Structures
1.
Amino acid sequence: MGYTILSVAYPLTPVGEDAVGGSEQILTLLDRALVQAGHESIVIAAEGSSVRGTLIASPKARGQIDERERRWARKVHTRLIEGALAANRIDMIHMHSLDFHEYVPRTTLPVLATLHLPPDWYPPSVFRSPHKNLYLNCVSGSQNRACPKSARLLPPVPNGIDVARLNCRPGKRKYALALGRICPEKGFHFALDAAKSVGCEMIVAGEIMPHAAHQQYFRQEILPRLDSKRRFIGPVGFRRKRQLLGEAECLLVPSTVHETSSLVAMEALAAGTPVIAFRSGALPEIVDDGRTGYLVSNAREMARAMAKVANIKSEDCVKSAWRNFSADQMVNRYMRVYARLIAKSATEQVQARAAGGTSWLVNW
């Protein structure tokens, strides 16, 4: 018997193969897997999204994203979720956004909210929610350990990637790569400093989102560090990303926040490319220090690690990706979570009806 899963993306941001953010990429993988397994997937995401299931398009960002536009987008999401529930027989809702708590619908359906960002980025009330059909899950062990104790928290489901699609290995070129959303917490200016100190060519690739802080970061910290050997090439699609990852001598991940995961680090390993990363959050769970890359604490240590990256074997990186970061492992875990929560909800509603109660109507 197939399920119908309603997945809700972060407002204003498209999902699909070329999606920038981690939550959007994970949603894309789950949407594809649901359809391939014979389930129905309904996705609420921004215009321009590419999904395998049914897309309910919400507005995409058309200019500077500020709090006023975010409030408006949340209201749109609220209406779209209510409409989807009214028009379809949904079995479960899976929310992937930072602000999911602003538009969680009043429903007896199980609602799973995947926390893609550090726990302290969410309001504490999320973890204290009294609503028994709301569940939370983290995407790494380190993120899960950082969460406050909560009856809503399920075991973590570590992120995964499509390893086979990344394992192309076109041949190495002498440059370091930093790839991802251009924003202060990614710390790409540290990577540029490290590359310059050892005379290494470097490519920075990624999208500058229409947030004032992101644009200011690019102008003040990235742009002044660019020169003939250190270049910024803007956003790249999947095929170009795969090529860049495969050709790079190393990927630099100088995150200044406790990363809950790092899809780009996993992708680099799948492409046979070592990762040099700050010792932050879940990155030590991804990089096997001295075997698939190096864990460092600052730009100076990053530069020293770049000088010895040739010691890392591409084969070890690829083996680690297959063993630890396969999307199939992630998908199978989510499918088990879906099945368990849907069955639990159905049992509870039958019991409520048998008892003659009314709590099965709305318990929010």
Note: Confidence is low (pLDDT under 50) at residues 359-364.
2.
Amino acid sequence: MNESLGRLHLLSNYDEITSLPSLSTFRQHLDELLIGKHNRDKKSAIVEIDIQRFHLITDSLGWNAGNVLLELFAKRLVEVLGTHQTICRINADVFAFYCEAPAQSDSLNEHIYDYVLNELRRPFYVDGNELRLAFKYGITIFPDHGESSDTLLRNAEMALAKAKNSGDRYVVYSPAMHARASELLNLENKLRNAVANGQFVLYYQPKYDIVGKKLLGMEALLRWDSPELGRVLPGEFIPILEETQLIVDVGKWVVQQVAKDCHKWRDKQLFSIPRIAINISPQQLCQPDFMQQIALAHNAGVPLDLEITESTIMEHIDTQLDNLTADKYLGIGIEIDDFGTGYSSLSYIANLPVTGLKIDRSFITHISESNGSKIVARIIGLGRSLGLKVTAEGVETKEQWMLLQDYKCDALQGYLFGRPMPALQIENLF
């Protein structure tokens, strides 16, 4: 009985893999330590550190090797910091630790960056494999950013989240992050209401052949008209839809609304319905009923093209290749969007079931510059050599248009030939 109680105590107060204190025990130790810090002029820090691409290690070497690595990582932290009481494993690959600059160090920053983290960059050896780890970390300073473990850990987590969503290796907390987090939470709540109350609308942007005379298709673009905020820019709300998985429900609505608009235009016999491109997110691509949604719209007479970013296609190529191949077999176009911004392999592209490439607008913006023109010309040449239709997006000037004609681009899309417009305006246009 006593042995069982002892094990229960260990499991509730310490991490089973690393033997580090649990989060609740860590908080308790931290609060006791902070209360005893009478010299507030000497700063200390809470650091949350994330082991980057830890899943690749477990995928290739197995979970047991992953657990061994976590154990070795925890031991290294204890060696560097000198105690296990102010270190904890928060979740699978995220740790937190408390540290202060020793007397011989010039600053707290120097101690964290030049000593603690350098020690963690030394290789680890697991099952005969040398593993060098990369990290993202968030830092919060005591007492500047808080005086309790709860506040400091929350702020360190916020800084780590910002580091993981940026190109920075580390981020130091600032009060502006808290204001931004509150703003994002408020925006998320409004988005949930928008999904429930049908506040989204679709705009359509025409796509023309390179001489600008023949309508080849249109791209359906999501817009949000909030009763409280007014028109919200896509760059503000679409990342939140993706992060919260709301994009799955909104994506279904987009497919259904495109079908409704196409049927209405067909009933009015105003113009021949061109191909309609819709943007597909990674979350949608992974849904088991995704192909069924697209096939239903296509079979109902909606000529669909799917625009999928280069990074999304490469990330999901192994799991979704059959679905994309089946979509192409049905006659559904598949375009690689924002082409040139990812890291796709040419050998992969040659074997993908895609029908077209869209050159990212950032390259079109700089097409009149020497390097920009070379990149655009090579992308167009690559597309043509693979038998793919190449579309330039973001065409805004006649100079860009003329250069694209010289390079024999197939199609263009941009403000020079038409801005995104609601369905009714499309009817009036054609």
Note: DSSP finds 18 helices and 17 strands in the chain.
